[in-house]
Amino acid sequence: MDIILWILIFLGTFLFMEFMAWFTHKYIMHGFLWNLHQDHHHKKHDSWFERNDLFFIFYAVVSISLFLLWRYADFWAGLPLGLGIFAYGLAYFFVHDIFIHQRFKFLRNANNWYAKGVRRGHKMHHKHLGKEDSECFGMLFVPLKYFKK
User: Total structural domains in the chain?
Assistant: First the structure.
């Protein structure tokens, strides 16, 4: 029975992270920490690293902290929570950084309906270069209007 609970917590955490991605993007990245996210919209730098990448480090620290709580403080839910955050971060990295922004030359030829919709939605987000008026959404639940044939 424990394994079912762990799986449910893992899946719930993974799905909750989609909400957190939307919330963080809309109210933090396009809010009071715009100075860190701005270089993701304005490519005025020659570096592979962006200040925007610091948001990844924040979620990695949260995930690692949950692993440590599970291991050393006997917090049993720390493992499925930490794994859910880690899995979402890994999926986000593949979809956003590798597939959409091509930070690594991999997954360039994916052209199914989902891939096209995700690319189209992200392109619409990036057409707004400023802090305001930018449509924000997560990685998995892109608005249906972008999935045209």
Answer: 1
Other Cβ atoms less than 10 A from the Cβ of 109: the count is 6
Q: How far apart are CA 109 and CA 102, in angstroms?
A: 11
d(CA 71, CA 73): 6
What would the pLDDT profile of 83-92 be if each residue is shown by its tens digit?
999 999 998 8
Q: Which domain holds residue 26?
A: 2-109
The answer to whether residue 91 is domain-embedded is: yes
- Output the pTM of the full model: 0.81
In this structure, is residue 141 part of a structural domain? no
State the DSSP H helix or E strand holding residue 128, giving kind and residue range, or none if neither. Answer: none
Could you report the per-residue pLDDT of 53-93, keeping only the tens digit for each? 788 899 999 999 999 999 999 999 999 999 999 999 998 88
